Amino acid sequence: MFHIFQYQPLRLITRNSLSNMCLKLMLSRPVAFTQIWKSWFSSHSLIGTKNIILMGPPGAGKTTVGRIVGQKLDCPVIDIDDDVLETTWNMSVSEKLQEVGYKEFLEEEGKALLKFSASGSVISLSGSNPMHAAGMQHMKENGIVVYLDVPTTVIMSRLKSMEVDRIVGLSPGVSLKDILHFRKQFYKRWFDIRVLCGGDIAAEVVAEKVLDAVRRYQDSELDTFISTRSSRSGKSMEEDSYKYFSDVVTQGLALDGGLFVPERGLPKFTAEEWQGLIEATYTERAQVILERCIHPADIPASKLAEIIETAYGENFSCSKIAPVRHLAGNQFLLELFHGPTASFKDFALQLVPHLFAYCIPRTCNYLILVATSGDTGSAVLDGFSRLHDTDKQRIAVVNFFPEDGVSPIQKSQMISCQKENAWSVGVKSDFDFCQTAIKQIFTNSDFTGFLTVEYGTALAAANSINWARLLPQIVYHASAYLDLIHQGIISFGSPVDICIPTGNFGNMLAAFYAKMMGIPIRKCICASNENNVLTDFIRTGAYDLRGRKLISTFSPAVDILKSSNLERYLHLIANEDGQLVTQLFNQLENQGHFQLQKDLLGKLQQDLVAGWCSEEDCLAAIHSVYSTTGYILDTHTAVAKVVADRLQDRTCPIIISSTAHYSKFAPAILRALRIAEINQNPLSQLHLLSSYSALPPIHWGLLETLKKTGNGDHQVCAADTSVLMCHIENLIQNHFM
């Protein structure tokens, strides 16, 4: 079919040029005219005048897949090697490469691309085309670039079986593996859509995946969000339209008080797709997973890659970002504390500020409101303070924390992390008050409207109620499973259990989402401290806050009674019944309790098990693990370790989320290690801990933060929502006006 186009020079085929060509073809080749007219209309609904451009390494199957896609769309198929380069040069590609050499070949190849134009076609690039910037920019102007991402080991096997012994760049001392690795940077630069292609996947299946990916790319309506309190029709009682990713990142909380969730659920990965990520780095895994969760209309793949690299490239002390370490027996630790503020919150809060800055309109200032039980505060302050200076002028953050409800080191850290656009405010109450107050402020339309009109400033949230906070957490749960495969502990498909110290339920929800996306997690184990409302709920279905008072414990990050993200989970197992969710959480707010009906409790108990840990058992676990392994657990990880010991059946590996570095809780750790006299100075406590030469070593970022002089002070306010609102208005006046 393509040969029709060879009767005239290849050029951009607009509707006018198509009409002129068709007139000539009608006179000379009526059959050809019928074919091209039918071709144009049948493919126009999907790609219109755009081209589908297939890109990937040699051996990725671009030519074969391109032919199948072209047949399915009934549109022209163009292979750059066969139909453009060899026709232009009047010799084979290998002959040209041998004649002119590697560097000149790339230039000649690029020149040929610059002279080439087509429309409404499927085009298969050569493996080296993406290395010529001007040529690729020209191609991209009228095309959707689809990257056929095939694991390097698979490509090498295919090229060996095809007896390919010459590709662009291959020379003495340069291996094929090196070339394939080098080229990846160019593929990542240009693609609009990535299609994962496993080892034995048939070309027909890849072609269907290409078409599905193009349909998603063309239709952003496929990636919309609804409130957990919306009706079954998908319409919220307060909102008349769906939201997109960029909307939910900036808005945070739905106007009806619910939380945003994807209307069509999370994407599913096949076993082959997951297996293709076993050899990938953490940032590569993050890129692939987040591309599926964020529509390119919200954040293009190239920009997303840039954001991920900024977030995880240099800000983490461990090159593996989230390493998995064997502890003992069938227990493994997922170390989530190698970020700049020493907790798992860094995974989201090094990324989210950049997502937020990209998504918000340039016509408005934004103040981010955060409530923290400890770790979120310093993480969000650090993350937003790393924005570009121009973004810091229009984006600021205020962190509300319980003044007497965090560890001394956590408080020092939050005060130290204050910058010109980031502040901490202590509240004379507990975390639940801080979180509830922020929700009330967001749903106070009079106040938010006043801020917008008077100061041109909108409010947004960075707590785990913000959907964007959950996505990076999905990544590290999936990555942990893939790391166990890479280490030879399990093979893909083997089950694992996961145990997580749980307060606001966000980390646990992310693990459950990873399971829904195809990671073979068997049991999700929720570990509570003495604030064990979640444990009681999972065991009985009764969420009852009546008569409960928050207890200050050695694990303050899970000193929470109202678990916000539980609402998202209940919405999921209730078949997205927003009316039921609204009823349950209104009852919790007004009466202090609700009871889950029997069928939903049955569903919940298929997914979750729970236990809790006393203060004494927490300290005993820290001492026991250090005595037997030389490894120091933080207090939250110790809670999870105690619960895992009680609830695991030892028939499969169990991954315990180590959510914070022990340095943040030095007084409790020193007490667990049975140190008699503890200096109250946080820096002295860290120096004492460092003398133990334990694993892991003292956290570099935390130590540097506490060494800083002139950390300044922070504001403290009463537990009154109106007082918090006054603080917010004052901060807006001082920063934005």
TrEMBL record:
Modification type N6-(pyridoxal phosphate)lysine: residues: 345
Domain of life: Eukaryota
Listed GO CC annotations: cytoplasm
Cofactor: pyridoxal 5'-phosphate
Record flagged with keyword Nucleus: no
Gene Ontology BP annotations: amino acid biosynthetic process
Molecular function via GO: pyridoxal phosphate binding
Pfam families per the UniProt record, alphabetical: SKI (PF01202), Thr_synth_N (PF14821)
CDD domains membership: SK (cd00464), Thr-synth_2 (cd01560)
Name of the protein this chain belongs to: THNS1 protein
Annotated source species: Origma solitaria
Lineage: Eukaryota, Metazoa, Chordata, Craniata, Vertebrata
